[in-house]
Amino acid sequence: MSARYSELTSLLRRAATLRSVGELLAWDQETMMPAKAARFRAEELAAIAELAHQRMTEPRIGELLAECEADLALVVDPVVAANLRDVRRDYERVRKLPPDLVAEMTRTSSLALEAWKAARAADDFSAFRPWLERQIALARRKAEAYGPPPGGEPYDALLEDYEPGMTAAQLEALFGPLRDRLRPLIAELAAGDGRPTALETLVVPQERQRELNRFVLSRLGFDLDAGRLDVSTHPFSSGIAPGDTRITTRYRDDGFLDSLGSTLHEAGHALYEQGLPKDDGLGLPLAEPASLGIHESQSRLWENQVGRSRAFWTWALSEARRILGAALDPFDLDDFDRAVNRVRPSLIRVESDEVTYNLHVLLRFDLERALVRGDLAPADLPGAWNDRLHADLGLRVPDDRRGCLQDIHWSMGAFGYFPTYTLGNLYAAQLWGAAREMLPDLEPSIARGDFSLLLGWLRREVHAHGRRFPAGELCRRISGRPLDHAPLIGYLKAKHARP
User: Fold this and answer.
1) Residue 229: beta bridge partners?
2) CB 359 within 8 A of CB 393
């Protein structure tokens, strides 16, 4: 490689190293930080974000980038060309954000996160509303700085941070038919007894739940010497640095299946992060995920297509009995199969089954888009939320804690994030279909507790490429078709049509 390209990669690695420090501080804030440290933590995070922004926007990066783009010996290499393409995109995009806006967004997100935690615990939307208003104002300033695509809207500029190339209009066209197919399917499948089963509410000591989660993580292929499993209010995954990928889950005595499901979800994210070529490529696009939708495809695939499968529980039941003890003796494989696949509308997105889940996401997409556009006032959010949830899932929301305050994202200013959850489900269905075609022994191997076949396939087909291919192209290359709602609906119908 040329000296210019080496210098460019070195500068990008320096910027990425600063961002990793910010990731570590953010992880600590949600897991171990003392409550009274919150205000100064906001200053620390703002300072790091401003420094990382300065590094990423250095004029020298622009000079080196232009020289590398003009070097034919470099651009003929498809890997280098892909790196240069996305470095150019990132460089031009980040330069549009004023440094003071970057610092203010980071500071506000840190403070708003703590305000959200308190407001949620107290069921007090009025306490969080001023922070929501500030975050919406900052999101609009950010969108204005970026500028929407031709013919687009401000929300598109925010969405670009999470799903490059996607627009609100494209999401609307994709999500509308999905909603239309899901509503009658939910009405059909959720017609039975809505009460939780004895297995779902079984009381299991949290220490044993932790042991089960760690055991399953290691069997999936998550390297615990290069990662951690901790506890937070809202489970999350953070690929902090090479050799440092951290995930969190949550526990309650009467919810071990919920905890295991959350752990499987975050494990999917973490396996992707551990599979990216970061050691030599930190700061380069090919060491980063293709998009957040693709990232979510990994978490949803491991949580749903694997973790809710009969094959998984054929193996996991005996291990769960070994670790959790005699409390599981009354339950057999059919009980577990029914419990993890029962369709029951829920107030809480993260506790929802895989059939109703997407209606939660589409609700949030529509509401946050309306907030950014100014079509919905923050003061009217609780009412709009409650009306929409009742229309979609037939549920009455008893309080804002289980309504519009349940998710962390708006406190973080993450407008444009929510749609990627449903994009992840759509991608996951197509990836799973491709994996089943290419790997005849896939489900038998899972039933034996051997996940290396699937993980190896994902490493080759998804993880190794980083951002080399845009998300839509990656999906088409693997599954042979563009992203569509039909494979997800087909997967859901096939699963729930069985005896």
Assistant:
1) 247
2) yes
CA proximity to 421, closest of 409, 405, 413: 409
> Token pair of 421, please?
């959850």
Q: Where in the chain is the domain with CATH 1.10.1370.30?
A: 168-497
Query: Does residue 153 carry a catalytic annotation?
Result: no
Q: Which two tokens stand for residue 377?
A: 């006032």
- Closest CA relative to residue 432, chosen from 308, 337, 298, 291: 298
Do the strands 227-231 and 244-249 form a parallel or antiparallel pair, or are they unpaired?
parallel
pLDDT single digits (tens) 262-272: 999 999 999 99
- What is the average per-residue pLDDT within 212-229? 97
3-state secondary structure of 222: coil
**Predicted local distance difference test score (pLDDT) of residue 195:** 72
Quick one: pLDDT at residue 134?
98
Q: What is the pLDDT of residues 369-398, one digit of tens each?
A: 999 999 999 999 999 999 999 999 999 999
Class for domain 168-497, per CATH?
A: mainly alpha
If you search the block for the tokens 């973490």, which residue do you land on?
Answer: 270
Which one-letter DSSP state was computed for residue 197? Answer: P
Rounded to 5 degrees, what are φ and ψ at 172? -60, -40
Distance CA 436, CA 423 (A): 20
Give 207-213 contacts, CB < 8 A, sequence gap 24+.
208/323, 208/324, 208/325, 209/251, 209/256, 209/259, 209/260, 209/324, 210/251, 211/323, 212/256, 212/260, 212/319, 212/320, 212/323, 212/324, 213/249, 213/259, 213/260, 213/263
Q: What is the pLDDT of residues 1-22, one digit of tens each?
A: 699 999 999 999 999 999 999 9
Q: Give the side-chain half-sphere CA count within 13 A for 412.
A: 13
Catalytic residue among 30, 44, 163, 266: 266
Burial 303-328 (b: 16+ CB within 10 A, else e): bbbbbbbbbbbbbbbeebeebbeebb
> What is the spatial order of strands in the sheet that 237-241 belongs to?
227-231, 244-249, 237-241
Residue 248 sits at φ, ψ, to 5 deg, of -130, 160
